Amino acid sequence: MKQGQFILSVLVANHAGVLTRVSGLFSRRNYNIDSLNVAVTEDPLFSRMTIIARGDQAVREQITKQLSKLQDVKKIELLTPEKTVLREHLLIKIKVTKKTRGEIVESVNIFRGRVVDFNIDALTVEVTGESDKLDAFIKFVSQFGILEMCRAGALAVKRGAGNDNKEEE
Amino acid sequence: MKATGTKVIIETLIEQGCDTVFGYPGGAVLSIYDELYGHSDRIRHITCAHEQGAAHAADAYSRVTGKVGVVIATSGPGATNLVTGIANAYLDSSPVVAITGNVPLSLLGKDSFQEVDITGITMPVTKHNYIVKDVNELANLIREAFFIAQSGRPGPVLIDVPKDVQTAVCDFEHKKVIKKKRVCSATEEQLLKATELISQSKKPYIYCGGGAVISQAGKEIAKLAERIDSPIGFSMMGLSAVSADNPYWLGMTGMHGRFASTKAHSEADLIIAAGVRFSDRATGNRSKYTQNAKVIHIDIDPAEINKNIETHCSLVGDVGTVVTKLLDKVEKKTNTQWMDAVQKMKDLKEMRSCKDSVMHPEDIIEKVMEYTDASTIVATDVGQHQMWVAQYYRFKKPRTHLTSGGLGAMGFGMGAAIGGCVASGGKRTVLFTGDGSFGMNLIELATAVTYKLPLVILIFNNGVLGMVRQWQHAFFDSRYSHTTLDRKTDFVKLAQAFGASGYRATDIKTLDEALKKAFSTQGPAVIDCVIDKEEKVYPMIPPEGSIDDIITR
Lengths: 169, 553
Known about the structure:
The complex is a heterodimer.
Chain A: E1 5-13, H1 18-28, E2 33-40, E3 46-54, H2 57-68, E4 73-79, E5 84-95, H3 98-110, E6 114-118, E7 122-129, H4 131-141, E8 146-158
Antiparallel strand pairs in A: 1-3, 1-4, 2-3, 5-7, 5-8, 6-7
Chain B: E1 2-4, H1 5-15, E2 20-23, H2 30-38, E3 44-47, H3 51-65, E4 69-73, H4 77-91, E5 96-102, H5 118-122, E6 128-131, H6 135-150, E7 157-162, H7 163-167, E8 169-171, H8 188-200, E9 204-208, H9 210-214, H10 218-228, E10 232-234, E11 249-252, H11 259-267, E12 270-274, H12 280-283, H13 286-289, E13 294-299, E14 313-316, H14 319-329, H15 336-347, H16 361-369, E15 378-380, H17 384-392, E16 401-402, H18 412-423, E17 429-434, H19 435-441, H20 444-450, E18 455-461, H21 466-475, H22 491-498, E19 501-505, H23 508-518, E20 525-530
Parallel strand pairs in B: 2-3, 2-4, 4-5, 5-7, 6-7, 9-10, 9-12, 10-11, 12-13, 13-14, 15-16, 15-17, 17-18, 18-20, 19-20
Antiparallel strand pairs in B: 1-8
């Protein structure tokens, strides 16, 4: 987590336009989203949004309260990084030569990544982990030449046995 | 029973207690209007001249009655014309339900004739909105819309109904209306903390806002003021909450507030804010705002707590309910020294800005007060006249002051006067407006004539956009860029052309004569009040300023 960043886990109604409502609220209240991830939960009536945003305590409080006012927002939780499993996903296409291939594959293994596509002059690799780990991997392979890359926003769940969705009435 | 979408709309509106709607017909709401045609005995429809006027009228209707105001408009331009009215209702927390038609489902998203994405457009200015794609959901969505509009902090909700959903058939049964509850989530601990702050305070100041009007908490606020010996100041939205006859009443505070009200506000050691949102127009420089004072913030919207002003104690809930709970705990006290100091502030005579003008705005308002009573609905437009009314008109009953507070929408007045007059059961209603504001929606005069609404419309006519001009005078070295209108409109003839009565007042004597006629005529009357363009609204605290920066003349 970077300075001032915080994680919001937001349970929302799963229907059209909800993403616009949430992201629109951020922009009109002048808050920035660093990343946002949304997909349906185990209950098809709800989606979960994981939002990484930035701001001090007052901003966190305001964002949470303003989001609570949206009809489609069912539950919001401000997650503490220490008690949260946080994962990001990276797909990256790296330029390879005969000479560099070995070193790249070795680094993929060290970062517990996987080669998902293999060409004579390019490798596509997937890596999962916390933000810092992906940053480190990207930094390392940048010396070989990055052809293309694609990175998903963070997913987060609270550690432990509880299910946030089920607590909802 | 089986019902079409339009039948569902009308039946659900009636079920929700709606008997009056404002609107304007059009292609995408033909079926709704056909249904209204058959139910004119159960729902009265007021056809305005422009959808904006209809939206303001619905807003004003809800402000006067406390019920949900309903407005209907067609797709495309009809819907976009509502937007200012919806935004106005949103910023002033008015419960409005707007129903728009849209193109059939199959034509949605194809840039069809008169198609706009009105749910997208109004998303930031509604509490919630819907586009209904299945007629089976329509009734419940309308019920939900009414509930959302009224619950917690009220506000507008829009329902967009495509044409084919209006004609589709479904099962329909009436349901019992869910009554909104008076909420109070303030804890015992917080109430005790507030009580402690009040008992410690030597210079309390109750700052009363629109929330107190909506909650009808005037009686409780007055009781609290008496119990703790505290003056009451008001945001513009809160002005009618407590009668101006109350001995603790100081009038409006803020940028153009009464001197004593603003001065006491700045010198208080405890601000008990009830149903306010600490607008920049009321607080001025926020870092100086709490320099000397602790703040207790009572509001129904938890998101307002600590949004603009950091509070020392927050009490979330309906103002009336929270203050009642406070009254159970707070003990009687007197602050003689403080109240004496406040009295001295009140005794300072406020200066008139324009000594040699023939008819002062303040005198016009005082003259009009000779003709109105406590329950007269008074609407305003936006600008200098609006501030003068807020400063000098003595409101005595809640829900009698209709003004565009948060949005500051010129053009609000005509629609508001119509909605207010209809809501009052056709009683004589006063509109104070300016020549600029009136120009924006004067077409609604036609509506007032059609429905024989007894409006008395006073145009403060100075030939300029007075408030903007005042700022140009204060901050732009009197460079009056494009604020001198130089129009040749004859408002007397204009009124007559619309079928209304028209009078011109150039001094208090002619004003009195005009008022005498206007208050006894049928239908609307326009009085063109000629005032000096050098008249200013004072006192004035420049934006981001404090009491130290106050300009009194």
